[in-house]
Amino acid sequence: MIGQAPVKGLVARFETPGALLKAARSLREVGLKQFDAHSPYPIHGMDDAMREPRSRVSYVAAAGAIAGGTGLLALIYWASVIAYPVIVSGKPLFSYQAFFPPIFAITVLLAAFGSLAGFIALAGVKFHHSLFESPLFARFSDDGFIIAINADDPLFEEARLREQLAALGAVEMEAVHDAE
């Protein structure tokens, strides 16, 4: 159409989680890579169907936890043994048992911060996308099982994908245009 923004993707809604899983598996088998499945709850087997790699967020969280725990332990050692060596009630200078609660708390806190930072950095979180303007997409958090295909995929052909999605059981489809 004249004056219409370029297509950014295609959104299709399915009635059941099984249909969504089947559609995701089929799209991946034909070679599409830039698509995502959205549902109101996790669907067992979806990561395998989409051939998603294992997340690396846990490594970032572990690094944050190790840095937090060892960093605070080192600070306690420095303060107790090097900077202010005071013997209290005959206890050794470095008595880490008394400081276990704050070490544990900092370890958990930095693991949580690492998880959040790792998720944002590694997942490529987008705070706005044209897809978010779609009324069809807005239903996924209530009762919709949605597949969103990005138009940047080399195999994106809207007409062919519409036929394929309809054959897979899509009940509604919508082309997403760039928000202006």
Blueprint (SSEs and pairs):
Blueprint: E1 7-14, H1 17-29, E2 35-38, H2 46-49, H3 57-83, H4 100-123, E3 145-150, H5 158-167, E4 172-177
Antiparallel strand pairs: 1-3, 1-4, 2-3
- Which strand-content bin applies to the residues? 5-15%
Mean pLDDT: 86
Shape: elongated
Order of strands across the widest beta sheet?
Answer: 2-3-1-4
- Spans where pLDDT lies below 50 across 5 or more residues: none
Would you tell me the structural class of the helices and strands? alpha+beta
Distance between the termini: 16 Å
For the secondary structure, the number of strands is 4
Question: What is the alpha-carbon Rg in Å?
Answer: 25 Å
Number of helices: 5
The figure for the number of domains is 2
What characterizes the major β-sheet? 4 strands, antiparallel
Give the SSE string.
Answer: EHEHHHEHE
Helix content percent band: 40-55%
